[in-house]
Please model this.
Amino acid sequence: MRSTFPVALVAACAAVVTLGTGPATAAPTATASQGSGWEPAPSAPWDVAAGERCAFPLHGEPIVDEVVRRELPPPAEGVTRSAYKGDLVVRVTNKETGARYDADVSGSALVDAYATGAQFWRVVGPVLVGVGEGSLARGMYVVDGVYTIGISATGAKTVTGPVVATDSICDRIG
Model:
């Protein structure tokens, strides 16, 4: 999965999010209060080829998407910081068998995006994370808890934190 948040991703995060599943281009469904600084941050449907995450091809599509984003002051030059929150349920389907799982990935995230393409996420709650390289084995996961996700400019993902649980979507629908 590419790191193009959100997300799913990100997916993509965040979010609340699908961490890097594709560009956010779906029609907005979230409602942000006027003048609050929060704006809809919809996730687009995505596809992943067999072998990239699971042994079979995947399709993901938000079925509930109330994610909103708020841009925050940058912590340093060349860094953008955004907060994400809201309900997000992504239906992940095994394209070979039709087996599917509705992943509730309604976590909240503070995301720093660097000019190099790297990202650093501070997350509370579940997000959908596709891993090609990183601290988790290749796969698609619902990661939950209180944790951070470092995404290198090449897309490698490192998940760390005091409370982290993972649920393999590949195992659920394989």
